[in-house]
Write a structure and sequence with these properties.
Length: 91
């Protein structure tokens, strides 16, 4: 019985080590950045455009997004893009 447990432990330790040694079979097929740019997938247009501020609040239905943070948003803010909204502590 002990020898079976020892064998099982060795297999549990050895199997992950063997599987970690595998390489990514798709790694060679990945395109280079030059191939991506040449294919028109991406363009070099200069500096990135600034993000538009967006503040989304949870509602009963779906999310409700605004260009400025709501003053009475409370704990309903579910996400934002841009500067963080002011934090107020309710007591």
């Amino acid at each position: 019985m002990r020898s079976m447990l020892a064998t099982a432990r060795k297999m549990l330790v050895g199997l992950p080590l063997v599987l970690c040694a595998c390489t990514n079979p798709f790694g060679d097929a990945a395109p280079t950045i030059d191939e991506v740019l040449a294919g028109g997938w991406l363009t070099e247009e200069g500096p990135p455009k600034p993000l538009t501020a967006l503040y989304c609040y949870g509602t009963i239905g779906s999310g409700d997004c605004h260009a400025a943070p709501l003053t009475d948003g409370g704990g309903r803010l579910v996400g934002f893009q841009g500067p963080p909204p002011p934090v107020s502590i309710e007591r």
